[in-house]
Amino acid sequence: MEFIGITMGDPAGVGPEIILKALNKKEEYRKNSIVFGSKKVLDYYKKLLNIKCKLNIITSIEEFREEDINIVNTFDISMEDFKIGKVSKICGHAAYEYIKNSINWALQNKIKSVVTAPLNKEALHLGGHNFQGHTEIFATLTNTKRYAMMLWSEPLKVIHVSTHISLKEACEKLNKERIIEVIKLADENLKDMGINNPKIAVAGLNPHSGEAGIFGDEEIKKIYPAIQEAKKSNIDVDGPVPPDTVFLKAFKGEYDIVVAMYHDQGHIPIKLLAFDLGVNVTVGLPIVRTSVDHGTAFDIAGKGSAKEKSLLNALEVAKMFK
């Protein structure tokens, strides 16, 4: 059996709640999922949500029980150590420890993939881990240099040239080599997910893709040359397509995925079309990593109202990879 690891995310957020809801709802995932988190926190939410499934602590695959929710008890903080819905140093450190332990299991081939519940970046930094987010943690701990963030949803799929940097820095650092790399990652990973001949669109950076240099020359100097180079590898890629129309074209089925130049260019259309349904995938890693495409939702944490649909989608997408 191929197992999926699920990290609990920030204990003060909705991660513990959506994990228990998802595994309680879908027996098929309970049979092959292992949660990396705090037993004490999960016990609290088990009672809050009136979930009948037992929590089974394991230290090896041999101790796994299909009928239970199986937990690798990692940095077992209690509810007295933090406040629900509040940023804290201890929760940021706990979230990091859950990720680190899950990656270790994946690199040892104990689990096939890792699905992550949300963390809080401020808490992560307070906890002594100066990463921009999950993507960078996974890349660092797996010693991966070539990677990208892909957002997956049924209506639209997007992959990013840059993510958690300022818009000014994203424009300044844009280069041909990185664009080629992301186009190739898009092609490779869509094929791994069962799309045999992916059609890729590359968005422009500037309005109207620069309008022949009138509104900027990045398309002429960097983006178009990257597309032409990628075509030499027999990749079906088009562009630069004006960013105000490319997502609509992909939504209508002209393209399988859009290469976005920066974070918000790709995130805004995904969140508009599939806010509760999107899945974040880190491509290029030696292991499969997917995630919910929403944050810790501190405003509703602990109230029992968080939706588990995005986590279920993340589990489903993790299964797509060959």
Task: Give the helix/strand layout.
Elements: E1 4-7, H1 15-25, H2 27-30, E2 33-37, H3 39-48, E3 55-57, E4 69-73, H4 89-107, E5 113-116, H5 121-126, H6 134-141, E6 148-152, E7 157-160, H7 167-173, H8 176-192, E8 200-203, H9 218-231, E9 237-241, H10 246-251, E10 257-260, H11 263-274, E11 279-283, E12 288-292, H12 309-320
Parallel strand pairs: 1-2, 1-5, 2-4, 3-4, 5-12, 7-10, 8-9, 8-10
Antiparallel strand pairs: 6-7, 6-11, 11-12
Helix pairs in contact: 4-6, 8-9
Mean pLDDT over the residues: 95
**In percent, how helical is the residue content?**
25-40%
Radius of gyration: 20 Å
Q: How many helices in DSSP terms? A: 12
Instruction: Please report the distance between the alpha carbons of the first and last residues.
Output: 14 Å
Order of helices and strands: EHHEHEEHEHHEEHHEHEHEHEEH
**Apparent shape:** elongated
- Residue share in β-strands: 15-25%
Low-confidence stretches: none
Structural class: alpha/beta
User: Largest sheet at a glance?
Assistant: 12 strands, mixed
Number of strands: 12
Spatial order of the strands forming the largest sheet: 3-4-2-1-5-12-11-6-7-10-8-9
Describe the structure.
- The protein has 322 residues and is an alpha/beta fold.
- 39% of the residues lie in helices and 16% in strands.
- It contains 12 helices and 12 strands.
- It has helices at 15-25, 27-30, 39-48, 89-107, 121-126, 134-141, 167-173, 176-192, 218-231, 246-251, 263-274, 309-320; strands spanning 4-7, 33-37, 55-57, 69-73, 113-116, 148-152, 157-160, 200-203, 237-241, 257-260, 279-283, 288-292.
- Strands 3-4-2-1-5-12-11-6-7-10-8-9 form a 12-stranded mixed sheet, with helices on both faces.
- Helix 4 packs across helix 6 and helix 8 (176-192) packs across helix 9 (218-231).
- The longest helix is centred in the N-terminal third of the chain and has 19 residues, at 89-107.
